[in-house]
Amino acid sequence: MLTARNLTKNYSNLHVLKGVDITVGKGEIVTIVGSSGAGKSTLLHILGTLDTPSSGEVWLRDVNLGTLKGNALADFRNRHMGFIFQFHHLLPEFSALENVCIPGFIAGSKKAAVRERAAFLLETLGLADRMEHKPNQLSGGEQQRVAVARALINAPDIIMADEPTGNLDSKNARELHHLFIELRDKFQQTFIIVTHNEELAPLSDRQLVMRDGKIISEELTAKTIS
């Protein structure tokens, strides 16, 4: 479903990515691990069209993302990709339900349908009684679940997650791990996850190890949580 070929990223004389190839199939959870400075987040941002490569191509749904510009790129990203970051980036003045709805409204979907799907997602994620709460009324784990629901609102082909458990305690981090597996199993949701979490990475379908701007190894990992 997603394929990247020979991705490089240079900042003057600094070579952050040095020819990265990656393929991700539908319903896969792929984690990218490696030390700080290995190029993990840069790679994720390029795959998610939040940054552009110095060379190379990224394809999603048989579309060369490098050919999309401006509004066309923003629209494609909104409809086909979801994002989860270490910090949830929820808008404090809006309720959980309203935060989840925002990407759907931007996509131009009917408001009633967006609100119905947002409520369904929040209920699915265990937040049925928290929909009208604002972010400062939610725990850290609840806030991150709202961010997950927001990433899912447009039924994206793929979700890009950058250190999604980095701001959570071990209990909430493990619950989020379970959630990703459940979403993969229930909805065939695809994930690419950059993480330092030594518990999360082995639970993916594949683990890619980066070092000095390259993927140096790949291994199949567990698909279920014991």
From TrEMBL:
Gene Ontology CC entries for this record: plasma membrane
SUPFAM superfamilies tied to this protein: P-loop containing nucleoside triphosphate hydrolases
Listed GO MF terms: ATP binding; ATP hydrolysis activity; transmembrane transporter activity
Gene3D superfamilies reported in the protein's UniProt record: P-loop containing nucleotide triphosphate hydrolases
Matches recorded under InterPro entries: AAA+_ATPase, ABC_transporter-like_ATP-bd, ABC_transporter-like_CS, ABC_transpr_LolD-like, MacB-like_ATP-bd, P-loop_NTPase
GO biological process, alphabetically ordered: lipoprotein localization to outer membrane; protein localization to outer membrane
Protein name: ATP-binding cassette domain-containing protein
Organism: Chitinophaga oryziterrae
